[in-house]
């Protein structure tokens, strides 16, 4: 039953992605190429890594908000989170296939396969998680740097309109 609900939710989401995603039918060859590309780019394992990051943040927040939770309780939270993820990873994969179908032609996908099978493509796949993590950290630092400047500018502009924050 949960699988059917997940499948229906995925179908509803696909329908909201826009008509252009369905304008050209996804044939078996293109689907297979996209699935191979997802494998080469480690999309599914990266999704699991992202889920683990979210889970770690959730556990930290729960520890802070609910200090009476034991390690066993937190293990239950983690197991439930991972189980739901595992039960629905097929839905995520289907959505990713349709996303690539929407944005890339069959020829584009074949060219991406050639690139990601190359030494440079494999290197990009290996370093992408670190690039994402480090670029996120840079973005946080940049936001902290700009935050006070933005706040000051907003206050000045609103003050010129008679509004005080």
Describe the overall structure:
This protein is mainly α and 165 residues long. The chain has one domain. Helices cover 85% and strands 0% of the residues. It has 7 helices and no strands. The chain has helices spanning 2-16, 20-23, 28-40, 43-65, 71-103, 106-117, 119-159. Helix 1 (2-16) packs parallel to helix 5 (71-103). It is extended, with a radius of gyration of 22 Å.
| Helix-strand string | HHHHHHH
What structural class is derived from the secondary structure elements?
A: mainly alpha
Average pLDDT confidence is 88
Q: How much strand content do the residues show?
A: under 5%
How many runs of DSSP E, i.e. beta strands? 0
Percent helix, as a range, is over 70%
Which spans have pLDDT < 50 for at least 5 consecutive residues? none
**Biggest beta-sheet profile:** none
Q: Based on CA inertia axes, which overall geometry fits?
A: extended
Radius of gyration: 22 Å
Contiguous helical run count: 7
Give the domain tally: 1
Termini Cα gap: 51 Å
Record the SSE blueprint.
Blueprint: H1 2-16, H2 20-23, H3 28-40, H4 43-65, H5 71-103, H6 106-117, H7 119-159
Helix pairs in contact: 1-5, 3-5, 3-6, 4-5, 6-7
List keywords for this structure.
extended; mainly alpha; 165 residues
Quickly describe the structure:
With 165 residues, the chain is mainly alpha-helical. The chain is built from 7 helices and no strands.
